[in-house]
Amino acid sequence: MAAQAPYSSSSDSKRLRILLLSPRGPLYRHRTGIWKKSLRYAPLTLTTLAALVPPELNAGVTLVDEGIADVDPQAPNADADLVGISAITGTAPRSYELAAAFRRRGVPVVLGGVHPTLLPDEAARHADSVVVGYAEQTWPQLLRDFVAGRMEARYVQEPGLSLANLPFPRRELLPSSNFATVHTIEATRGCIHRCEFCVVSSAWDAHCKSRSPTSSPRSATCAPAV
Asked: Are residues 146 and 47 located together in one domain of the fold?
């Protein structure tokens, strides 16, 4: 990857624009036939990543979940200075397709999620940077590095991540009316078991982390009304 120049944000017109995407896949797409809503719960990945953007960057963040709307990399609302894509294995082909389209326009792309965590070398062929593992610490650091012009090719979450004092997901950035279940919360993360058919222990670790009894319910009360 060529050396990155520091990002200039000296004026409002140069405000850092971050576009976060959750691509569609064979089973995850917004065309639901006669159903007007996606028959699933509102995801927390993109809204959590948005909440983790360091406030001092004063960035504008746009979320697009292809479970409810397609992404057109050429559309005006897809203009961005940095694109982050969260990929699972089923959405990896579409993720790489979108990454290629944005990179052809000269927009740097970051890939993260389960699939890049399991196959970071593969993901690196399609991105300017890859986030391996959870992103609560690495994503904010990546953004600070990007603004400083020193974004690295790979960021790896160190062991021992704590879920304490994390910001609440920015639910207002996704249209909640498109989901059948809106007020989703995260109480635990991970699993102590190692089932052969399950990706959790392979992609993350064999530990179960818990949110505090006060923060999980509070994150639900912070959700906007439908």
From this structure: yes
Distance of CA 105 to the CA centre of its chain: 21
CA dihedral 50, 134, 188, 220 (to 10 degrees): 0
- On whether both 215 and 140 belong to a single domain, the answer is no
Domain, as residue range, for 198: 187-226
> Which structure tokens are listed for 7?
């990002």
180 and 200 part of one domain? no
For the chain, the distance separating the N- and C-terminal CA atoms, rounded to the nearest angstrom, is 44
Q: Residue 63 and residue 217: Cα distance in Å, rounded?
A: 24
Residue type, 92: A
Tell me: the pLDDT tens digits for 123-169?
Answer: 999 999 999 998 999 999 999 999 999 999 999 988 777 777 788 88
Q: Which residues face 181 on adjacent strands?
A: 41
Length of the chain: 226
